[in-house]
Amino acid sequence: MSNENGNAYALTTLCPLMAVCGQDASPAALIRDRLHIVNTGAWSPLAKVPNVYFSRLLILDDVVYQSKPHRLEHLKSQYLVFEASLHGKLGPFLEGMWQCAEPFIRSMWEFCVGFSEVRDARTFTAFIEKCQVKTTFFFNGSTDEPLAEQLKSLYLKQEFSKFAYDHQGLSAKELQAAFKAFIARVEPENLARPTWRAGATDLSNVVIP
Amino acid sequence: MTSDADAVLDLHDIQGNIIKAYPRFGYPRARNFFLRVSDGDAGRAFLSALIPTITTAAPWTSGGASVENSQRPLVTTNIGFTYDGLKRLGVPRASLQTFPEEFAMGMSARRDILGDDGPSAPTRWDPVWQGTEPVHIFVSINGRDAAGLEQRYREILALLPVAGVELAAGHRCQSEGALLPYQDSSAIFVDGEATSREHFGYSDGISNPYFKGAGTDSSNVIGGGKATGKDPRTAAGWEPLETGEFLLGHKDEAFEYPVAPVPNLLGDNGTFLVYRKLHQNVGSFDSYLDGEGAKFPGGKEALAAKFAGRWRNGAPITSFATERKANEFAAEWAAAKLAIGQASTQAEREAAKQRFSALNTEFVGFDFTSDLAGGGCPVSAHVRRVNPRSALEFNVKGAFSTPSALSNRRRILRRGLPYGDSRAERKDEGEHGIIFMALCASIRRQFEFVQQQWIDYGNDFRVGNDKDPLLGNHGLDENGECDGRMVIESDPKSPAPPYLCAKIPRFVETRGGDYFFVPSLTALRMIAHGIVDPT
C-alpha cells in the first residue's frame, strides 16, 4: 500500500462537516474555535496515544481557484482533515486513540456527518476507515521503529554526547568504569525510563527521569 | 554583442567600496559616521553637495596615476542609506515598497535571525543605535593616515546645512563613558606597518569573492570564484561568480536578476551593506585558549588554528598541517614580498612579483574535498563554515551543477577593520573589536543565512546544533556554564579520538549596526534631485 512504508503508516482522513448544527455558528467555526485552544507538544491529547509520530487536525474549507483558464470549482462540503504518521497497523492505533482520547475525539468530530453513529472503538474505527484517503503524506522526521524505541534512542544519543564531553582524556580503566556507571544510569534496555517525553518540541523538560 | 564571460561593468557608476577592499589598497584607517535627516530638502541639498566626493570603482594604477580619468584619491568616501533614510530623502512610497523586507525592517528588528541575544541584544548596543529613530545616512571614509581622515571628515561636516541634517552621536570609545560622533577603525600597526591582524591575533580579510566584471587582478579567481571541480590550486579550479550576487541589475547564480527596487535605475549597479560593530572578548579568548590549549594535543597555537581553519598567520590548516610548515610558508611569503622592493632591474622585479603572487594563491587556493572528515581543517572551523567551498557536496561528485553550488548563493564581500587597542590590557572590558561590513545583493539570502545557519547552527555540516567556535552566539546551560562546544575531528587514518572542546564562552558580541542600501552614482543623483519615479 502506498500509505505504508515498513512499519510506518500514513493516515489521511477527510470527514465531511454538517452544513448546519442548530447553533448560532457554523460547524466549521465551532470546531476551529476548539482547535485553536488544543494543547500542543507534550501536552497534546494525542501525545498520550501510543505510537503516534506526528498528527495534525485542520479544516479544509474549499479548493483554491487557480485563475484562468481553470474552472472555478467548489467542494460539496467543508471537511475536518485528520492526518497521522504512526507505527504499526491502523486498527490497533485507532483503538488506542479511542481509549486514550475519547473526550477529545468527541469534541473534534462532533459535527461530522456520520459521527452520531460512533459509540465505541469499533464504530470509531469503521467511521475513520470510511473517510480515509490512501495517500502518501508521511512525516519524514522519524524512522519506522516503535515510538518508545525512537524516544529512547534520542535520549541515549543526547546523554552519550554529554558523557563524551564530560569524560574526555580519562585512562581506559577510568573511562570503562565511568561508562559502566553511565550505562547503569541510562538503562539502554529500559524503554519506559529514563527517556524522552512523547510530543516534546524542545529540549527543556524533555527527559522523563 | 560580447560574451557573458567578458562582462563589462560601468565602474565609474559603482561605489568604490563594493569593488575594492580599501585597506588592501593602502588605506588602512577608516572613519564611519551616521546622519539623521529631519528635512528632506536639506537632506537632498547635502547629498548633492557630497556626491562629487564619492569614490567610484574606477580602476587605479599602482603608481597613483589615472586610468580612464580616475585619479587615485588621498581619501575615499562612500555612502549608504537605511530604509528610513530613503524615506526621509523623499524616495516615493511606491519605490520604498519594492525594497526587500529585511532591509525595510533593519538590523535590530532582525535580532532573532541574527542571534543577537543576551550580551549582543540591541538594548546593549552603542547609544547611536538606541534612539527612537534609526540612523538615516551612513558615510564611510578610508584614508592613508589619520590627518587625511580628519580633514575629509571636517570637509563633509562643513557641507551639512544649518538645520535638517544632524550628525548622530553616541559611539562608545576607549575613554570609558565618553561618546563620540563617529566610529574610527584602523588596521593594527606593528612597528609603523599596517598589519592584517585582528584582536584575537588572526590575519583577517584574506579571502573575498571574485565576480564577473570586478576588474581586479584576474588571479583573484583562485579561491574567490566558484569551484569547477578541477585542481583548486590553479585558475582552472575556479570560475568567476555571477555579478548579480553582488550588484543589482545583473544576472545572478540562479540565472535571474536579484530582487531590486523599482525603477530599475534606482537599483542597478547598487547593492546592500551590512554594518556591524563586533566587540571581541579578548580576555575570555586568551584564557580559554591557554586552558584548553594546555590539554589539546598540538598545543595552544594548533587549537587556535583548529578554531579558525587558518593558523594565526593566515596559512590554511587544510594545506599546512603543522605550525612549523605554516611558519616556514609565512617566512617565505614575507621574503618574497621584500624581494619585490629590493629588485634592481625590471625583469627581477617582474619575477619577484610573480613569485609573490604564486605564494599568495596558497592562502586561498584550496578546498576541503581531500579533508572531508575534517582531520585537517575541522568541519566546524570558522573559515569552513562561512565559506564551505565544495565541502557541502560531501564528495558526491556531480551532486550539483557546480561542486560549490550550495555556497555560491551565500557569498559576501567582506570589508572590515579593527577598532580599539587590546594590546596593553588583554581583558574583555573596553572598546576593541571589528567594524564588520558585508556587501551582497540579498542581505537575507547571503549575510543573514550565513549568520543564522552557518555561524549559529551546524545542521548543514552535520554537526547538530554546534555553532561557529569563534563567532557563534554561545550561551549558558541550565547550570549557568558556557554552553559552546566544538568537535575537532582527528585524522581518520590515525587511532586518536576526536578532541571535544566544551564550555566555550561567547567570544564576540554585537554592539550595533544596521542595513544600508549603497546606490550607484546615477541613483545617488536621482535621490539628490528628488526625481526617483517608480511609475
User: If you average the pLDDT of chain B, what whole number results?
Assistant: 93
Question: C-alpha Rg of chain B, in Å?
Answer: 23 Å
Estimated helix fraction of chain A: 25-40%
User: Mind telling me the C-alpha Rg of chain A?
Assistant: 22 Å
The structural class of chain B is alpha+beta
How many alpha or pi helices of chain A?
Answer: 5
Ends distance of chain B = 30 Å
The protein's oligomeric status is: heterodimer
How do the strands and helices of this protein lay out in sequence?
The complex is a heterodimer of chains A (209) and B (535).
Chain A: E1 4-5, E2 8-16, H1 27-36, E3 52-60, E4 79-87, H2 90-109, H3 121-131, H4 147-166, H5 172-186, E5 195-196, E6 207-208
Antiparallel strand pairs in A: 1-2, 2-4, 3-4, 5-6
Helix pairs in contact in A: 2-3
Chain B: H1 16-19, E1 29-37, H2 40-50, E2 75-81, H3 83-88, H4 93-96, H5 101-105, H6 111-114, E3 137-143, H7 146-159, E4 165-167, E5 171-172, E6 179-180, E7 183-186, E8 189-190, E9 193-194, H8 221-224, E10 226-227, E11 238-239, H9 264-267, E12 271-280, H10 282-293, H11 299-308, H12 323-342, H13 346-364, H14 382-386, H15 405-408, E13 413-414, E14 417-419, E15 433-440, H16 443-455, E16 484-488, E17 499-504, E18 508-518, H17 521-529
Antiparallel strand pairs in B: 1-3, 1-4, 1-7, 2-3, 5-6, 8-9, 10-11, 12-15, 12-18, 13-15, 14-15, 16-17
Helix pairs in contact in B: 2-17, 10-11, 12-13
What does this structure look like?
The complex is a heterodimer of chains A (209) and B (535). Chain A folds into two domains: 4-131, no CATH class; 147-208, no CATH class. Chain A has a four-stranded antiparallel sheet, with helices on one face. Chain A has a two-stranded antiparallel sheet with strand order 5-6. Chain A has helices spanning 27-36, 90-109, 121-131, 147-166, 172-186; strands at 4-5, 8-16, 52-60, 79-87, 195-196, 207-208. Chain A contains five helices and six strands. Chain A is an alpha+beta fold. Helix content of chain A is 36%, strand content 16%. The radius of gyration of chain A is 22 Å and the shape is elongated. In chain A, helix 2 crosses helix 3. Chain B has 535 residues and is of the alpha+beta class. Chain B has a domain at 11-278 and 512-529. Chain B has helices at 16-19, 40-50, 83-88, 93-96, 101-105, 111-114, 146-159, 221-224, 264-267, 282-293, 299-308, 323-342, 346-364, 382-386, 405-408, 443-455, 521-529; strands at residues 29-37, 75-81, 137-143, 165-167, 171-172, 179-180, 183-186, 189-190, 193-194, 226-227, 238-239, 271-280, 413-414, 417-419, 433-440, 484-488, 499-504, 508-518. In chain B, strands 1, 2, 3, 4 and 7 form a five-stranded antiparallel sheet that branches. In chain B, strands 12, 13, 14, 15 and 18 form a five-stranded antiparallel sheet that branches. In chain B, strands 5-6 form a two-stranded antiparallel sheet. In chain B, helix 10 packs across helix 11. Chain B is globular and about 70 Å long. The interface between A and B is small, with 4 and 5 residues.
